[in-house]
Amino acid sequence: MGSRADLIARLMIALQRPGVDGVLATPDVLEDLLLLGALEGKVVIGSMNRGGLQGSAFELDDRFTAYRTADEIAARRLDGGKMLTRIDLADPGTVATLESSAAAVTGLAEHKLMAMVEPFWSTRGADGRVTNLLDPDSVIKSIQIASGLGATSAYTWLKLPVVDELDRVMEATSLPTLLLGGDPTGAPEETYAAWGKALELPSVRGLVVGRALLFPPDGDVAAAVDHAADLVHGGTA
């Protein structure tokens, strides 16, 4: 992913596939795609908070350093904003992230735009590394906190990982949910099977997948994207 030209080329391939509804990215990526004419007719979601750099002492004080406000999202005529909301009860930076996420949810709702909240129950180990806890009960706790952010949840969607006991996890919310693909691990067939099973749950509306589709093991971006799109839209893949 160190080559911007290669990344943009892969995104262009993905966005040209018929089953792809849109893209979620930071301003720099979206502007490259806009200049290339790749966003016409697509749902476009802006990533908002990017300040909590991985491995930093301030990782969980995740400042809004991309699209900072709902007004910026609306002014650029995007369809919504996404906020990563990691929750660590032992880290004082968490409260600033929660406050900023709540303000973004409220502001986006005032513009009638989607607020995509990506919550994680997190912890910092003895080595200082932040880890997101992906057991069912931890994900449920993160959902309950994320669902209450902002003055209204009318325009709130959740972005959640595919975890064990997902049917029980999804009982924790009535909000529409998109599943994140995560880092590609294991055989692609196993990943597709897990996505397909998860998409059968009533509140799960689709997938938001990056590396797993843009950098598939066989290098065939179009085939990987088509397979995932078939799962979302009821194909036979």
UniProtKB/TrEMBL annotation:
Gene3D superfamilies: Aldolase class I. SUPFAM superfamilies: Aldolase (SSF51569). Residues 1-229 form the Cgl0159-like domain. InterPro entries: Aldolase_TIM, Cgl0159_dom. This is Cgl0159-like domain-containing protein. It comes from Kribbella shirazensis.
